[in-house]
Structures are given as structure tokens and as C-alpha cells.
């Protein structure tokens, strides 16, 4: 039986169900008695001494607003990290064919993609690493590392292949052709982010994305023409004194966003705003500045009119795939 089990789990015909099976026959037998959850927990539980020798710390960094203008969030050191410290590790999802991240326009029937009309790349591309002469992409997916921003002049970490740990990193895979990964359903490649110098507690962690990425970003910034009519939901939700345009004044403001209205007693829950009909000064001189007449979609899916709604009773969101990072011409580069 053990020989048959080993033949099954080592089959060259890989699949997701096969990858989920216990590798050891004894573990499989025990799983039938106590359940796979119990055996997986046992395999994942180690002593403090074992962790001190083999473990990798995952809380050296945490996300917060970046010090780089317009960069969004960044990764920051939670403690002092001496030069040479493995700041973080990152398992890698391998994508053998980067073209699968290409997005296409809808065909005339609206139900299928028109492969003759590429319209851009998926956002995931921005978080992957690649080479211009290879179709392969490697996408890190560990805690905190997606927030590490670029610095081509003075980075404080570098990326290298994991060393001396064949449990998580199979160095022999580095010599395989890209076609090898077409049938590989497990992750067995790992990056390490290593401190190039001493990093102080609270300092932003930065890595060099490479010359090609930096050149592509600089060209994007030069060519970017922002949409003057675009207003983000974040701006609308942050500033209640900002007057909202009615749909009659400019309906294009609401092309990519939608809003919800909540009663002051909150008994009716949130109702989607169908239309902002009118705006006028708040007769009670409250801090909101203006009140609004709305058309909202009720629980019965009928449109109803609501008067004298304050700004604090409205909240706005992006429509699916309409956030600024998805807008036409948004930056994409591995």
C-alpha cells in the first residue's frame, strides 16, 4: 500500500487535488482516523527551539502611508534591522505565460472577449517580477512585501533567492526551462529581502525595481493626462463641505462611482442613490453646508424621492473596476 501511495503522490501528472494529498503514507493513514485538519496542524507545529533555528520572521515590516509622494502605502521597519538581516521572505507564484494578464475588450455579443482588441494589463502585473527576454513572471505573495516601494538611488534592501532551505525553495528549478512550470501546481521558489545597511525602526523599506521599470514610470508620468472631471469617492467622503453636483449639472461625475444614502435613524439601512435632483443651503445652518434631494432605490427596487438629505448621510464608492488604478492608461509594468 505504501508503494502505491508513493507512486500516486509522485505522479508526473500534476493536479490541484493531487497536490493536496499528504506526502507521507503514514500521515495519510492517520488523516483517515483524525481528519486532515488535525494532521496538517501537527505537521505545522514546531518547538520554539526549532523556530529559532529554522524560522523566518514575518513581522519585521508593516504597511502605512509611504513617504514617497503619490506612492500610496509603503512597508516600514517595526524594529531595528542590522545589515544582512532577512527583512522578509516571499513565496513566488510562477506565471509561465505573462500574456494571461492581458485584458481584452468585449466582443459584439458582450459575453466573450475579442482577442483582437487588447485594452491593457491586469493590475497584478505591477506586483510581479520578470525579465524582458522571458515570458515568465514571478509574483511574491507574503505579508508586507507587496508594499515595498522603489528607490533606484538608495535602496536599503535587495532581493535574492532563499539560501539553505530546500523545504521552501527548490534551487534546481532555477535551471529548468519555462515550459517546466506549465504543469507545476505548487510553489517552491522563494525570495528573500535582505538589508543592505542598518535600517532604523520606523524607516521605510525600499528596493530597486530596476532601470527598465524606472524608465517606464518616468515616461508614464510625462505622458499622463489626468481626467479633469474625475472625482474619487475618497475625496467626496473626506470633505463634507465639498458641494455635490446634481445629475442635471454634470452627470459624468457619477459615471464611475455610486453612492448610498442612510437614514438618520438607520432603520432602513443603506439605499443606493439613483439620482441627485437638487442642492440648496442647509436651512438649519449645520456644518454640512448643503442639503440634497435624492432619488434612491428602495428595498422593493422602486425609485423613491427623499428630501433634505445631509452630506453625512451619503457615502460614495467606486463601481467595479472603475477605481483610478483601473482607468485607461493606468501604469502597468513588472
Plain-language structure description:
The structure is a single chain. The chain is of the alpha+beta class. The protein contains 8 helices and 16 strands. Strands 6-7-3-10-9 form a 5-stranded antiparallel beta sheet, with no helix packed on it. Strand 14 and strand 15 form a beta hairpin. The two termini are 47 Å apart. 14% of the residues are buried.
How are the SSEs placed, and which strands pair?
Elements: H1 2-9, H2 16-19, H3 25-34, H4 36-44, H5 48-54, E1 61-65, E2 73-77, E3 86-95, E4 102-106, E5 113-121, E6 129-130, E7 137-140, E8 149-150, E9 157-161, E10 190-195, E11 204-207, H6 211-223, H7 233-238, H8 247-250, E12 257-262, E13 270-281, E14 290-297, E15 303-310, E16 314-318
Parallel strand pairs: 8-11
Antiparallel strand pairs: 1-2, 2-11, 3-7, 3-10, 4-5, 6-7, 9-10, 12-13, 12-16, 13-14, 14-15
Helix pairs in contact: 3-4
Major sheet attributes: 5 strands, antiparallel
Low-confidence stretches: none
Helical stretch tally = 8
Q: Structural class, from secondary structure content?
A: alpha+beta
In short:
By secondary structure, the chain is an alpha+beta fold. It has helices spanning 2-9, 16-19, 25-34, 36-44, 48-54, 211-223, 233-238, 247-250; strands spanning 61-65, 73-77, 86-95, 102-106, 113-121, 129-130, 137-140, 149-150, 157-161, 190-195, 204-207, 257-262, 270-281, 290-297, 303-310, 314-318.
For the structure shown, list the relevant keywords.
334 residues, alpha+beta, five-stranded antiparallel β-sheet, 8 helices
Amino acid at each position: 500500500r505504501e508503494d502505491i501511495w508513493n507512486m500516486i503522490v509522485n505522479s508526473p501528472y500534476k493536479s490541484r487535488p493531487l497536490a493536496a494529498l499528504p506526502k507521507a503514507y503514514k500521515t495519510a493513514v492517520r488523516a483517515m482516523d483524525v481528519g486532515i485538519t488535525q494532521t496538517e496542524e501537527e505537521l505545522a507545529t514546531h518547538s520554539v527551539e526549532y523556530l529559532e533555528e529554522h524560522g523566518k520572521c514575518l513581522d519585521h515590516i508593516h504597511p502605512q502611508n509611504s513617504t514617497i509622494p503619490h506612492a500610496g502605502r509603503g512597508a516600514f521597519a517595526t524594529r531595528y534591522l542590522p545589515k544582512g538581516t532577512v527583512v522578509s521572505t516571499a513565496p513566488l507564484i510562477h506565471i509561465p505565460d505573462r500574456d494571461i494578464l492581458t485584458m481584452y475588450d468585449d466582443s459584439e455579443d458582450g459575453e466573450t472577449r475579442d482577442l483582437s482588441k487588447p485594452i491593457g494589463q491586469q493590475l497584478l502585473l505591477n506586483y510581479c517580477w520578470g525579465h524582458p527576454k522571458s515570458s515568465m513572471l514571478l509574483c511574491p505573495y507574503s505579508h508586507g512585501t507587496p508594499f515595498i516601494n522603489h528607490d533606484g538611488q538608495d535602496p536599503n534592501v535587495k532581493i535574492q533567492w532563499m539560501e539553505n532551505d530546500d523545504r521552501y525553495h527548490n534551487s534546481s528549478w532555477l535551471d529548468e526551462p519555462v515550459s517546466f512550470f506549465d504543469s507545476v501546481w505548487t510553489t517552491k521558489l522563494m525570495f528573500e529581502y535582505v538589508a543592505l545597511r542598518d535600517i532604523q525602526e520606523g524607516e521605510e523599506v525600499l528596493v530597486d525595481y530596476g532601470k527598465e521599470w524606472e524608465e517606464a514610470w518616468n515616461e508614464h508620468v510625462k505622458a499622463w493626462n489626468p481626467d479633469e472631471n474625475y472625482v474619487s469617492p475618497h475625496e467626496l467622503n473626506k470633505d463634507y463641505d465639498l458641494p455635490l453636483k446634481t445629475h442635471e449639472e454634470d452627470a459624468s461625475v457619477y459615471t464611475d462611482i455610486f453612492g448610498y444614502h442612510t437614514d438618520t435613524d438607520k432603520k432602513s439601512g443603506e439605499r443606493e442613490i439613483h439620482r441627485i435632483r437638487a442642492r440648496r443651503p442647509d436651512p438649519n445652518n449645520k456644518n454640512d453646508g448643503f442639503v440634497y434631494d435624492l432619488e434612491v432605490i428602495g428595498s422593493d427596487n422602486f425609485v423613491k424621492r427623499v428630501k433634505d438629505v445631509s452630506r453625512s448621510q451619503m457615502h460614495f464608492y467606486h463601481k467595479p473596476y472603475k477605481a483610478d488604478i483601473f482607468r485607461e492608461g493606468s501604469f502597468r509594468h513588472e
